[in-house]
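Second attempt. The first submission of Autophagy protein Apg16 had a stray character pasted in from the spreadsheet, which I only caught after the job came back as garbage. Lesson logged: always re-copy from the clean sequence file. Corrected sequence (199 aa) follows.
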Amino acid sequence: MANWRDDYYAALGVRDEREKANIGLYDAYRTGALATARQQVQSSEAAAAPSSSATSKRGATTGQQQDAGKPLHEVLAAVRADLTAAQRSRSELQDRLTRTTEELEKLKKKTQQDGRRITALEGERHHLQLRLRDRDEELRGKAKLLDSVQDELASLNLQLNMAEERSSRLQRENQELIDRWMAHKGKEAEAMNEASKFS
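This time the job returned cleanly.
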């Protein structure tokens, strides 16, 4: 955004330098014009004086006008050349101003488009940040749930192992009781058999 300002200030600086460079010509033109005016006043005063003095001064006045006419012609030529250069400079500056204005308008349009794009991207970023925050919270909740499920699964596995150990122990105890009961019943049957032999 600073480029067009720099170009604008540079163009103003160039214009000031050109105008200052021509100050001498302007002053010379003013000086020549004043000298010519003075000579014309002196001529008119000399014409109003007595004829004897007018006749004697006429040759000097004519010589002064001829001498003043030549520098004035040169000054006018220089002023015309300076005017042409100034018009050329103005045309160049006008072209640069037109190009700068067009570039400025393009940059303004681009800036507006970029501003709208930035606003849209900021909105999208905010929306994505909200979604990401929601996903983070969801992941934290699922991680807690997973930890809870794993803890519960570990607890259930422990209870299952304890229940299996208890079942195995009860099966062994039951088998021992059955074995002892069968042994006891076997002894009773043998005793009854022995008793029946003596009777």
